[in-house]
Amino acid sequence: MKRILYPAFVFVLAAGVGGCSLFGSWGGPRRAAWRSQAESQCLSSGAVVPSDTVRPMDEVDGPGACGADRPFKVSTIGKGPNKVGLNEATAMNCPMVAAADNWFERVVQPAAEAFFGQPVVGVEHMGTYSCRRIAGSRYMSEHSYMNALDVSGFKLADGRTVRVKTGWRSADASEANFLRQVGGSSCDDFTTVLGPASGAAHQDHLHLDLARHSQGRHVCRGGDEPVPEGGRLLSFFKDDSIFPEDKIRTGSIPGGIGEGEDEPMGDPEYPQGD
Ligand SMILES: [Zn+2]
After folding, report:
1. Distance, CA 233 to ligand 1 centroid (Å)?
2. Which terminal residue of the chain, N or C, has fewer Cβ atoms less than 10 Å from its own Cβ?
């Protein structure tokens, strides 16, 4: 990810290598510098231990600024012997793997024990990596950088699956409370949490990501639905102050995805999608 181009050298590379991924690295749009730094810090911290179910991948570079330096292909969530399977293996960057593992142990399993008296034995998701904009926005989604996870359901030990789509407003208070507890407590592990009450795009999943919002803020938005009896009011439902009317836009990506522009600075908006 060199910032300075040496035209002669690039020409030699382009002519000799024939436009392979190296060319994209040198001449294409760049991911924000903090992303590489966050990955490096995470990798050197030992927070993610490679295994058969957490396998290091090669760099994914592009299209455009999309990708990650040293992502993992992950088929489990959680730590050591306590990890459980995902419905499908998926790619995440190191900080997301670490955050998801912490979240599962700190938030999901205690909530499952509290509301169902049994552990979660599997997690269903709707994807992590997708090189695209936030729906209804000019900003790239954190999914573009393997820095996001859409969780749609939790399989319990007795075989039942609690799904966001059906459980959030379920007549079964234990399901609604469990999902609110999980959603509400997620904002300590992730910097963006969007749930069913945040808009039409999140009726069937919790969007969790590690975006860097200005001033270190966390965007936790589930809406202001009444919490079912017995449920706890958590930060998930409180912080709408970060969506001021006079929000200043500080960047954009005009044109098609990755057509020559670096990732913009500033907070993305989440009008509908993620
Ligand atoms: Zn998402």
Report:
1. 23
2. N
Using the mean position of ligand 1's atoms as its centre, give its distance from the Cα of residue 16 in Å: 39
59-102 tens-digit pLDDT: 999 898 999 999 999 999 999 899 999 999 999 999 999 999 99
* Residues 149-175: tens digit of each pLDDT: 999 999 999 999 999 999 998 888 899
Q: Write down the pTM of the prediction.
A: 0.77
Measured CA to CA, the distance from residue 80 to residue 53 in angstroms comes to 11
Instruction: Establish if 263 belongs to a structural domain.
Output: no
Domain that holds residue 16: 1-30
The CA 274 to ligand 1 mean position distance, Å, reads 5
4-47 pLDDT, tens digit each: 444 444 443 333 333 333 344 455 678 999 999 999 999 999 99
Centre of ligand 1 from the C-alpha of residue 4, in Å: 33
Residue 157 CA, ligand 1 centroid: distance in Å: 26
Q: How many domains does the chain have?
A: 2
Q: 196 CB contacts (<8 Å, ≥6 apart)?
A: 164, 168, 169, 202, 203, 204, 222, 223
Q: CA end-to-end span of the chain, whole Å?
A: 26
Q: How far is the CA of 6 from the centre of ligand 1 (A)?
A: 38
Ligand 1 midpoint to CA 88 (Å): 16
Distinct helix (H) and strand (E) counts, the chain: 7, 11
CA–centroid distance, 198 to ligand 1, in Å, is: 12
